[in-house]
Design brief:
2 copies of one chain form a homodimer.
Chain A: H1 6-17, E1 24-26, E2 33-36, E3 42-51, H2 63-79, E4 84-94, H3 101-113, E5 117-125, E6 130-138, E7 155-158, H4 164-173, H5 180-186, H6 192-200, E8 205-208, H7 213-224, E9 227-230, H8 241-246, E10 253-257, H9 260-269, E11 276-282, E12 288-290, E13 293-294
Parallel strand pairs in A: 4-5, 9-12
Antiparallel strand pairs in A: 1-2, 2-3, 3-6, 4-6, 7-10, 7-11, 8-10, 9-11, 12-13
Chain lengths: ~300, ~300
Amino acid sequence: VSGPGELEVIERIRRLLSPLGGAAEVGIGDDAAVVAEPDGGALLLTADVLVAGVHFDLALSDPSDVGWKAVVANVSDIAAMGGEPLYALVTLVVPPGFALSGLYEGLAESAGAYGVQVVGGDLSAGNELCVSIALTGRCPRCPPVFRSGARAGDVIFVTGPLGASAAGLRLLRAGESSGACVEAHRRPVARVAEGIAAATAGATAMIDISDGLATDLRHLAAASGVGARLEEVPVAPGADLEEALTGGEDYQLLFSAPDPAAVQAAFEAARLRPPLAVGVCVQDPIELTLAGEPLAGRGYEHNLTW
Amino acid sequence: VSGPGELEVIERIRRLLSPLGGAAEVGIGDDAAVVAEPDGGALLLTADVLVAGVHFDLALSDPSDVGWKAVVANVSDIAAMGGEPLYALVTLVVPPGFALSGLYEGLAESAGAYGVQVVGGDLSAGNELCVSIALTGRCPRCPPVFRSGARAGDVIFVTGPLGASAAGLRLLRAGESSGACVEAHRRPVARVAEGIAAATAGATAMIDISDGLATDLRHLAAASGVGARLEEVPVAPGADLEEALTGGEDYQLLFSAPDPAAVQAAFEAARLRPPLAVGVCVQDPIELTLAGEPLAGRGYEHNLTW
């Protein structure tokens, strides 16, 4: 018997909880929730969990890599709003005998790299390792960028080539232990400066590519009520097109913006590698194509029961 | 081989992460972290996880009770700072076939009861049910109350009798399914209004009794560098003294304050049941006594490896 699927479950959760109302500008469903601050600013709140055997394999990943990636996955959600990460709460469920020091070393490295302060969390014994992080951020200059603002005619950008992390996992499984793709899988990078540059340049919608370009573009297009016509997809060296389309965890940003010249100027001013124009938003929300062909790939959904 | 113990592990985590510095007024170790807001206010951040088989037993607790308690455990940490809860991120790790609706119904009830808005979170498949919540709050009127401000001579208060939840768990295990103690275990109450009243009345230190009075008093005294001389412990009807001393999850608040009249007045003004004076803080940090006898009970520590 097939369950309702993760997206449908999230929709049911949203319906159950939405009567509570409140002050959040946007809640469940974007990369991060946005709530108003007393001074008129926007506070960003996000949470991401990594579970052993689901999101990582300790036979292939060092515990310090898991700690690193757990922070990056959350920082990337803040980056996708055009925000800066600030404070993390780190909650661990730890199986018997699992040594914590390596995982916290990776967490500390990553937190240091992104200027994140770990201010608390929780620890519990359990049977399987879970790393659950909640991260608070702020939008420094611009209003936050949601998934939902793309309009027909906007140009679609990605901040870099895709598929390196998926290729790295394939290589690790084949026994490789080094190289750029393996490194991309072990130590992914969140694009905070790129997110701010995109927001500055008037990005209308943004999402981080954590589930694969095909899936995350679908999310952005659906939230915005537009379609998307991709011309080509930049494939990372060592990866193949399938990995570039469906591999998550590259944490590149995908965004739409009406003015490509403004985008190039903002990235140049921030001394960032220019983002890659990959296509255009179109009126028809049914259209999701790459070089004229329908874009496949629904992405991974956890099997859940309501 | 015995591990370093949970408190020692938390101390090592704190040492590993503290070089990162930053703007937090207080981070790891209090009920909630306190970070400064741009308008000069104080944002409170806390996280708590409940794990099946560790914190609850689905043979004894309905999933909706687990959802309720997961919110309350976090709200109580905000209450213990004198704060008001605002926004929750709910992250679930869900074993195959576990139906989510009941748990989210309990979450929604509890969030509604405490004015908490669930703004996001994460969902993952896994092998054991984990409910990990991160909660943001604010201090509405007074500065937050830490664990560390108690001084010799301060009177020690609890907001109500203790042990009902532990007695309820004992009764559930014995096959009972109703009554005040069972209800106290299934649907514990967080003391938000009481925490604000205590802060208003000049409380010098505060903690929620989640691990048992003996343990949580020890935490408060150690953080403040004082001892504590208890005269008597208010035992909830149906509970015994041992349950009142060591049973967690009553979520009553324990606080110290120099002016008992101000405390009574603040609780009366807020139309709250008056808190119970149970003892006094003393100079000698070694002294932790109840009616002249050493207070036993280190409380539960998860077995962790560093």
